[in-house]
């Protein structure tokens, strides 16, 4: 996949990985529709000039997703790539309310599902399209300190797998991005709905201690490289693959090791 001349939508594009992706796509010659709840997305879009337009809106809402597609088509042409990048951390877990669990499910999973429902029928008719899910290493491994994040990121990986299997022979490409620590607001401060400070600190320590914290620009470059190669699993942190292999080779041993690692974080 050569993104030059292609039309892309990037969600969560007001900052972090999404903003870096939008810049990388525009720099590679793509035309980009940026979406975010934060009005900062307008500034990012303005920075990119005539190759970009911005929409402020909630991408869990199918009406907003349809608006993004309509803006892309009216400004640039049919959508070629969709980067489902928006995400939230969620509450600690058993102490989280139904509303907090539902919010994590909406943003981290259902936003992807609804975007696919809007885009894939048309892509199937065209015989081309590319759907990129930003999940997390937590979707392959787990997330100490936040059950909703671990559970919903597992679900995001599962949905991306299903899309790939179901539509991969129909000209539709699917990639799933699973980084560990990335220097974003989500890592530095936690999401405002992550209400327990101690749990937040534990979750952040778990990520930071596990490996290098990458910049959004590094991750965006890895994503675009993975898209160019049409790789399903894009791992900005190469060690995640080895961790995943250990997990699958001996699940009980891996679980015991994770419990030991969690204990070190709580000291």
- For the residues shown, what is the average pLDDT? 91
Q: Remind me, CATH topology?
A: Rossmann fold
Shape: globular
> What is the correct CATH architecture?
3-Layer(aba) Sandwich
State the low-pLDDT regions, or none: 189-199
**Order of strands across the widest beta sheet?**
3-2-1-4-5-6-7
Fourth-tier CATH superfamily name: NAD(P)-binding Rossmann-like Domain
Structural class: alpha/beta
Question: How many domains make up the 3D coordinates?
Answer: 1
Q: Which percent bin holds the helix content? A: 40-55%
Question: How do the helices and strands follow one another from N- to C-terminus?
Answer: EHEHEHEHEHEHHHEHH
**Residues in β-strands, percent:** 5-15%
**Distance from first to last alpha carbon:** 47 Å
Work out the helix count: 10
Total number of strands? 7
Question: For this structure, what is the CATH class?
Answer: Alpha Beta
What is the CA-based Rg, rounded? 18 Å
For the largest beta-sheet, the strand count, sense and barrel status come to: 7 strands, parallel
Offer a few descriptive terms.
Rossmann fold, alpha/beta, 267 residues, EC 1.3.1.87, oxidoreductase, NAD(P)-bd_dom_sf, SDR_fam
